[in-house]
Every structure is written in structure tokens, then in C-alpha cells.
Automatic annotation (TrEMBL):
This is Methyltransferase domain-containing protein. InterPro entries: Methyltransf_25 (IPR041698), SAM-dependent_MTases_sf (IPR029063). Residues 25-122 form the Methyltransferase domain. CDD domains: AdoMet_MTases. SUPFAM superfamilies: S-adenosyl-L-methionine-dependent methyltransferases.
Amino acid sequence: MPASSIPPRIKWAVDLMDVQPGDQVLEIGCGPGAGAEAICARLETGKLFAIDRSESGVDRTKRRNQKYVDAGRLVVRQIDLATLRVPVKRLNKVFAFNVNLFWVRACDDEIALLHERVVPGGAVYLFYEAARPELVPNIVKKASENLVRGGFRVSVVEQKAPPVIGLIARR
């Protein structure tokens, strides 16, 4: 199998998260597994729990990251956030890239679950590729409102090239 490459936007996002070797991380919407690969490469005693509603996303993530699954650093499940029961009591970080849930509708139950599981000082990192710049203000506004209503403090970061907007929601 050829070596996989991690897109620059994913590298930037994971660098910004500053994943530590012992972190307990949840990834929402693992898709093709690039985020999982970048996160797991930084873990030693920590673990990534990656979820996706799509069977193909789960399969691709497992195939791409089989060595981390085998090492016990990665668990991948087909489930949505609303029905998730996180296997770890406390999460240091939550990562999501281009997951629309947080800005397309009220998601109070999902955010309450995250608030309950993220340790004080931990954070939820939501990233959106700004391919359609006209959507960015609405994405930031709606996602921020949902997170603030759920008890998080939100800051916004931006990368110019490739264009990515990030919301960092601290507990």
C-alpha cells in the first residue's frame, strides 16, 4: 500500500490542536482517516476514538490506520454523535473537520455530551474548509451560538492558504 499523504489543511488543524502523547481525543466524522492518521502519530499512551455515520468512512479510516488500531491507539465506530456513549470518561480534545452538525441546526444534546466529557481546560476544535467564503460568517455565527449556549468559550482562528476557519471551544 503506498504511503498516504495528509492534506495541508488537516496538518494545520492537528498542529493547532497540539495533541499530546497522553491525550484522549474524539474525532467526529473521521471520513477518509487523514485526521486520525495525523492525531494517532502523536499519541503514545493516549487514544483516539473516531466516529462516522458512514460505513465507508469507518472502513476507510480503519484501513488507512490499521497499525494504530492494532496498537490500541485508535478505536473506530459507525455511529452518530447523538447516540454516542464515549468509552472514556474524560476527553482532552474533540476534533471535527467539515462536520455540518454544529452550524446547520440546534444540537444542544450533542454539545451537552461534549461539555460533560471534555475536561476543564480541554477543547472542541471545529474546522471548516472555506471553499465557499460566503458561508463562513454564517458557519461561525451558528456554530459559535450553539457552543456558547452549551457552556463553551469560543475563539476563531483562520488559515489563509488553503482557506480554513477554525472554532476553538474551551470548557
